[in-house]
Batch of 4 targets.
Target 1
Amino acid sequence: LLKILSSSLVFSLLYGCGSETAVDKSTTPTTPTTPTTPTPTTPLASTITGTAADGYLRGAKVCLDVNENGVCEDAEPQDTTIVGGVYVITVAPGIDIDKPLLVEVSAQTVDEDDGELVGKPYVMKAPAGKHQFVSPITTLVQQEIENNPALSAADAETKVKTALSMVDDTEVSLFDDFVAKKKIDANKEKYTDLHKTARVIAALIAEQTEALEKALIEAEGASTGNEKESFALIMDSINKHLARITAQISVDGKDSAKDFDVKTLKEELDIQLDTKDISAQIAQKKAAAKREKIT
């Protein structure tokens, strides 16, 4: 009997130890998993691709006018147009792309309408968000926005269309490439007239830019520093005569914008920039722009 009790005691002790060991194993804590840190994404550059035209312009500087001062500065994203007036501008991350586009046409820029050098420099613009095509026509629209910053691009376009007697031409956009559209679009006659109008306006901008710079040099000894206000005076001068320009073009009779005699029409229109008291005019433009910002 003693032997049986001893054996039972030993068995009980061994079984108890085995059970204790099993419980210990089941309660052993597991090592927590370290969360994975997400890899930060690198901001991507933006690209602006488009075309500059009076006729297609080759060798013109195109820039995103980041500080909106009317001048292409070295630090601003830019490109030089190639065949067909094409530009591709890379905009670095962090730069606001919602800015106007500016085209500086030099005397050495080639106008593909006739393959000749432009001869006199001038500037063109396009509104923010309308970067695909820059022309003297989009320049009219952008100037409306600069004169009244509360205007949307669509509202400014309507104002210019009204001045061009095109307000009922709802299928024609002033932001379209009229050089291409006049060949294939159902409204090709309207686009041909737009091309002719653009050629006249480009010639007037170039001529009046030259006159204004001469007047500023005579008045102040320099022609730089107020480019935006100076350009506004030029565009306001041309805008007053848009109805006359379009009326003359409508009776021109030539089908081709390339054969259109810009020089003769410009002489007949005789649109001159008022350069009297030019410094005072610029000061007034600057004061008006400040008032618009406040309101």
Note: The first helix runs from residue 2 to 26.
Target 2
Amino acid sequence: RIVTKNNIRYTMLNYTYGTNGIRVPSGKEYLVNVWPTDLEVNDVEKDTAYQEYKEQVKKDIEQVRDKVDVLMVAMHWGVEYTDEATAYEKDMASYLASLGVDIIIGAHPHVIQPVTWIDKTLVIYSLGNFISAQYQTDDYNKMVGLMTSLEIKKKVKGKSSEVSITNVDNDLVYTYYKNWRGFKVVPFSSSEIATYLPDYQRIHDKYAKVVKKYDNKLVDFVDRMLKVIRDILDVDLTTDQKVKESLIIHLRPTIFRLRYGTQQKNPLIDFIKKEYKNVFRASWAISILFEEYYG
């Protein structure tokens, strides 16, 4: 189903790693899109069924991608009660991003996981529990959930249009209950939060770090890089917020691929790597020769 709101067309596809042991009725596989993951194999590359299903995902996306402005995918994935995205989650997210998905919304772990970008794709690995009757143990990790808000903007020029996702904001919420009664969802931004969770500041700071986990190191890296540029080139860009944000946006997908991307054989990449090595060797040899003559 495609929905139009404020002249923006959007739709959502859904996939799940499994059905929690519930059998899908024979002949009715269309009821649920199962993107199988074999945790016994637990290897993205060696999981044949998982890799084969990517073709079905690609077909699904190709059928709707050119018909909508915004394509969202809801993913039921991951491992329960872990705040780190699994190798399967990261590979799925990377693959969906490569197919042009705009927003990926994850669920199932019952705890929050990081929010990040892969190129222009917003990835919410896990929203956690919005409202829950699970036990208030493990430092409330199952009682803290995430609400993500964003703005979708569409610019139309003639027959073409451009869509962007901006102003992404992540708000933590807390589920309060007592004696299995009186359930209430309280945003951490609410003035009431201290009434229901006295230690709210520490809890908020702890889980806010989880949300930003994949970007914290990148921000620190960019800060240090700008300081190096200042010290060596005598050009101070450390206070230029636009430069900093631009570097983060461009570096984020590159680092994600380096850390979590799937290695694929590519003759062109192999050739470039080979030639780069040769150029590096030549440059190194010339620098040594220069030192010998003019050092």
Note: The chain has a mean pLDDT of 87.
Target 3
Amino acid sequence: HSFPTRRSSDLNNLGQVVGTDIFNQPFLYQNGSFQHITIPLPGFGAQPTPAGINDHGAIAGTYNDLFSGQLGFLDQNGTVTTIVPPGTPSYGFTYITGVNNSGEVVGYSPAGFAFIYQNGAFTTFRAPNAPLTEFFGINNNGEVVGNYSDDTGNHAFLYNNGSLSFIDVPGSAFTRPLGINDADEIVGYYTPSTVGGGQDAYLDNNGVFTTFTYLGADKSQLVGINDAGEATGNFQDQFGDSYAFVQDLGVPVATPEPASASLLISGLAALLANGVRRCSRNHRTTGTATPSPNR
């Protein structure tokens, strides 16, 4: 299904999707219907942007406060915790990108480090020799996907217990992973290395890539995937209009027929141009890194 003028951020194993509409109001989509959600944030003039939702209905994201800048939050059934990592200036910016069922919240700081927050404690991480490290998604096993940049370029990775596995869509100039489920299926977007290649969505199933080109879309991305293989994402058409969508990728997804990965968009036919592209090159090389706890 597609939802015009809305932007999705994540979905959980119940099929609930969170995001924002054209007026930057947060919404929850489930069972075919939308509802605006209210998050009881502290501060003055707070405007929330949901980034993740877990199976308990806890929502994590960011909000802007007139006097404090951009802060993170975790809303657990109406109990809201403000999240600001150590080292953040008094008027600074915090980016929250996901939450799992254990209440682990991931994000990053413009100070250059990524972090995992849980129950008042932060574990920060910066990749070696990297001025900027970002976490974008976390599964219920505590595995995290993200990016870091250094003198050699930008690198996508899967982080697990101090080990980094690097992710690169074959033939891409840039890869960004945004979501991961408990089967280590990763979704995101990439920029093809060809000139004028745009931005396309991808699924990485343990080293087997499925890339998606949507007819009429100038840019596309998958931002979250649940354990049933349902994904949510966004695309922008040639006129600059944005659409959120939910797509059933199917399980398993390593070698599906193109029809099983078709996009379900009401009123728009033939959305998949040239079907789906599949590559099987092993993409993950490993390294080690050590996180640093801050409490």
Note: DSSP finds no helices and 28 strands in the chain.
Target 4
Amino acid sequence: FRSLHKITVLQEQKGELTTVSQLPNGQHPEKIGKPGEQIYGARFVGERAYVVTFRRTDPLYVVDLKTPTDPKIIGELQVPGFATYLHPVGDNYLFTLGQNADETGRVSGIKTELIDVTNPAKPTSTKALYYGSSSASAAALYDLHAVAVLPQANGDVRFAFSININDTNYQWLHSGVYLFSVTGAAQNNADLNLDGIMLTEERSAAQTYARFYGNGRTVLNADAVYYGVNGTVWASTWTNPKQVIGPIPIPKPLPQPEPQPVPEPIACTADVRPGIEMRVTAVNACAASVEIQD
């Protein structure tokens, strides 16, 4: 099948969005992606857009948006597999998360990669890390909220998300939060590393499948690492992720007390006489003395 991918630049005019330009166009007819490829990831960073397409390999396109009326592709990188999550690190690097694949496009595991875009015309892969087999899974592949990101004061950036690892026979092995860091970006000498794994579940004779499965969320706070899914939380630290506290069930909220019935208003009995003036001078009207003047 054929697919045509476009980038459309919009501008607000009189409260409405109008089209300023599109790519490809007559001046820049280069297509985004090759025939049959689909867009798997995109990220807009300043005056650039990064677009990932995939069918058998992963072309990463660098699009120049500096001039809104003249967008154009200025760089391309071919790497195996594809990325669905892209995050800028400093001005010259991209951290990507996706899946590795062979030359036929067959997926072979989870992949994180560091891309150097210092020269946008010639982006390069600095380092790639691979995990699991073709049946490995991660909610972060399709849900960007599953990735926790924590920039450091020195320009380094920490990334954390959960991965479920299976063997080549599709048998579950373990689940855990993988802790990645990109260091040295501020010095234009960036490196990608796996700093550790906070295991939340592991295969054993008594457990052969993941019990806590779903779209979990990871939280990074200083050195602390938290992971929650399906009403359960695990906790550890970045510097010692093997020491894990959990699973900790989240207490269910206490039932709200039944609303108390509103008491009926107290009514005082009184004779009604036309033309009578009544003066009540006490706080408790029902116990007050009433002076009646005809």
Note: The CA atoms of residues 114 and 127 lie 5 Å apart.
